[in-house]
Amino acid sequence: MAATILITGATGLIGFRILLAAIAAGHNVRYTTRSEEKAKMVSSNTAVQKLAPGNRLSPIIIPDFGADGAFDSALQGVTHIIHAGSPVPFPTYDPATNVQRVIITSSIVSNLGLAPPPTTVTASTRAPLPSPVSTTFGDVFEGYITGKMVELHDTDTFIKINNPHFTISHVIPGYVFGCNELALDSVMMQTQNSSNNFLMMGMTGNELPFPIHGGFVHIDDLADLHLRVLFLEPESNVTEDFGVAEKVDYGTIFDHVEKAFPKAVEAGFFKRGKVPTLPINYGSSDVEKLLGRKLKSFNSAVVEVAGQYLEKLGIEKA
Ligand SMILES: NC(=O)c1ccc[n+]([C@@H]2O[C@H](COP(=O)([O-])OP(=O)(O)OC[C@H]3O[C@@H](n4cnc5c(N)ncnc54)[C@H](OP(=O)(O)O)[C@@H]3O)[C@@H](O)[C@H]2O)c1
Predict the structure, then answer these.
(1) How far is CA 289 from the centre of its chain?
(2) Out of the domains of life, which is the source (predicted)?
């Protein structure tokens, strides 16, 4: 049956792909953004237009998620929520009775914590919060990781205290790579492409000055997982979370590109870059069972992004 799904973050890499998958599956989709301009970017995107959603798709502008009552009108008639927008403060607890289920897009850093342990971590791992939780940070990553850890802990507490009538699950991805239909030209591909910016660095001769964790999921798998988890029916007073991150070494980015597009490499459209990997151990074997298929490989994500880049440059893919 068609659900009415509210998606936050739909003007970003992950939320946009979930939005496409939800429309394609026949659901009604309402999505939030902070600006009219970004809403237009979504409605005018060719991937959206191809699906011809008509009045099954509508934007709602919420300039400040944290404002009192910010979600009041957005939640009317909504049965399911996917919260893929960042940052991730959740609306204050005002239980719209129509809501049945909420999915929050987290990150494996919420399980790994500020310093990844040598042991295997899973979606149910809770990294201990620093005490007290800092409010100033040395860099953006420290702030980001702390925010994700706090959200995970706060949601556990919220469920315990409020025993809400709706269920909540987290979808917890590693770095997300794959074709981003919102990147409209070769410059956007390198600068406004969320995590794909890192892949682009590795294939266009740039150097990332710090390591990023080596856990990956393909954007197609992640979008499917969100919709799969959205319609599961777990018990109401527990969080059931679903992590997904395959081990990768970013030192292989250029090798994948070279193998798939030797002529473009020879012509100088691609150059070996340097993206250092911070090795991690993350267990996500149950996700393949849930999706009923093998997860897509890192190679396929790299080749897809490199192919999209050539397409934007107007270069033949070879
Ligand atoms: N990409 C990854 O590799 C990765 C990995 C693990 C987890 N995640 C998580 O997945 C989620 C989405 O990531 P993404 O890669 O799709 O990000 P993205 O492409 O940068 O998009 C971010 C989205 O969040 C919204 N947003 C940003 N700041 C906001 C704020 N202050 N208030 C409300 N909305 C805000 C933006 O909406 P508007 O600007 O239109 O308002 C946009 O739609 C985030 O929670 C991120 O932490 C991402």
Answers:
(1) 20
(2) Eukaryota
Nearest atom in ligand 1 to 85's CA: 24
Instruction: Flag whether pLDDT at 88 surpasses 50.
Output: no
Q: Exposed, middle or buried: residue 178 (CB in 10 Å: 0-12, 13-18, 19+)?
A: buried
> What is the spatial distance between Cα 220 and Cα 21, in angstroms, rounded to a whole number?
9
Whole-angstrom distance, CA of residue 168 vs CA of residue 191: 33
Give whole-number Cα distances, 223 to 28, 78, 156, 171, in Å: 16, 19, 24, 10
C-alpha–C-alpha distance, residues 276 and 202, integer Å: 9
Query: Is the confidence at residue 190, as pLDDT, over 60?
Result: yes
In tens, the pLDDT along 274-287 reads: 999 999 999 997 89
Tokens encoding 75: 């939640």
Say what the pLDDT of residue 87 is.
53
Cβ within 8 Å of residue 5, ≥6 positions away:
22, 27, 28, 29, 30, 78, 79, 80, 81, 82, 230
Asked if 221 contacts 295 with a C-beta cutoff of 8 angstroms, the reply is yes
Ligand 1 centre distance from Cα of residue 88 (Å): 9
Q: Which residue has the tokens 């957005």?
A: 74
Distances (CA, A) of 201 to 182, 205, 242, 251: 18, 6, 29, 11
The number of beta carbons lying within 10 Å of the beta carbon of residue 259 is 13
